[in-house]
Design a protein that fits this description.
Elements lengths: L2 H18 L16 H14 L12 H8 L3 H14 L2 E4 L3 E4 L21 H22 L2 H18 L10 H10 L3 H12 L4 H13 L1 H19 L2 H20 L6 H14 L13
Antiparallel strand pairs: 1-2
Helix pairs in contact: 2-4, 3-4, 4-6, 5-8, 5-11, 6-7, 6-10, 7-8, 10-11, 11-12
Length: 290
């Protein structure tokens, strides 16, 4: 092979290695805010990501290195990373560490052309999710790997932490739904569920969600749902996982239908969905919910 080609290949390899390499320092400032330590860490890392100090696709420094830079315990760093993962800035990948996936919190970025407001399809999406997503999560529970269980637990932990601290800008729990969809062992169900979750965007969805998350009460009940599902995955309890996902999605239907932005036709359709899926056939019996 000519020398120039070898040099070109070496240069390409070096660039790829550099992209994967974690940034050694991001000029984090000393922690002194009255907010909890993990909140301050999460905010500084989010700001560094937004400023381009950590590029999308790059790997964050490891827990030990971040603990050294911030002069805190690894437990505080772990809480910060769980929060950032739930909010949508990063993703934990086995064998690769914590990878930057976005420069903005999930549900706050600019909508793509496919995500423009289509209110007439809102309940079509919800109806399809009620029919498909519970079965998808049932299959996850039947074959959940330890890596999947750990990932969902980390996201649920992040949800719990961010609900207590609105300044972390959590707007949606779709990250948990996407992780469950990707973990489904049936590739067709996995793709359909993931696409339906992606369809749960648009201006109307966001306006209702933003108000819901600002008020805080309903997301706390959603946290309970996700905790039950996470525990069911760990036990391999597919019935509870599936039933709780139905209950969770029905609460989303109820929340949207009760919104002052919902049309009368939407409220009537929501009523029919709730009547159908709340029948005894679908009712969740929480005899082993925790």
């Amino acid at each position: 092979m000519p020398k120039r080609s070898l040099e070109a290949n070496n240069s390409d390899a070096a660039r790829k290695a550099e992209k994967k390499r974690p940034n050694a320092e991001a000029n984090f400032v000393e922690l002194s805010d009255p907010d909890p330590i993990f909140v301050q860490i999460a905010e500084q890392i989010a700001e560094a990501i937004q400023a381009g100090k950590f590029q999308i696709g790059s790997r964050l420094p490891g827990e030990m290195e971040l603990a050294r830079q911030f002069k805190v315990s690894r437990a505080s760093v772990r809480e910060a990373l769980s929060s950032l993962q739930f909010v949508g800035y990063v993703e934990s990948r086995r064998g690769s560490g914590t990878i930057v996936t976005s420069t903005y919190a999930r549900g706050t970025g600019q909508l793509s052309q496919n995500e423009l407001e289509q209110p007439e399809k809102l309940f079509d999406v919800l109806e399809a999710r009620l029919a498909i997503e519970p079965e998808s999560v049932r299959q996850v529970a039947l074959k959940a790997s330890q890596a999947t269980i750990n990932q969902i637990n980390k996201l649920v932990e992040g949800m719990a932490l961010t609900l207590e601290h609105p300044e972390l800008n959590a707007r949606t729990d779709l990250g948990i739904h996407l992780a469950l969809a990707k973990a489904c062992p049936n590739p067709f169900l996995s793709r359909m569920t993931e696409e339906l979750v992606f369809q749960s965007e648009g201006h109307l969805w966001r306006r209702i969600r933003d108000k819901t998350w600002q008020e805080g009460k309903i997301p706390k009940s959603w946290l309970e749902h996700h905790t039950i599902i996470a525990n069911a995955l760990a036990r391999g309890d597919s019935d509870v996982a599936s039933s709780c996902m139905k209950e969770h999605l029905l609460s989303v239907v109820t929340n949207i239908a009760s919104s002052d932005q919902a049309e009368f036709e939407d409220q009537q359709r929501a009523k029919l969905l709730i009547e159908h899926y709340s029948s005894s056939e679908y009712f969740l019996i929480r005899n082993e919910s925790q």
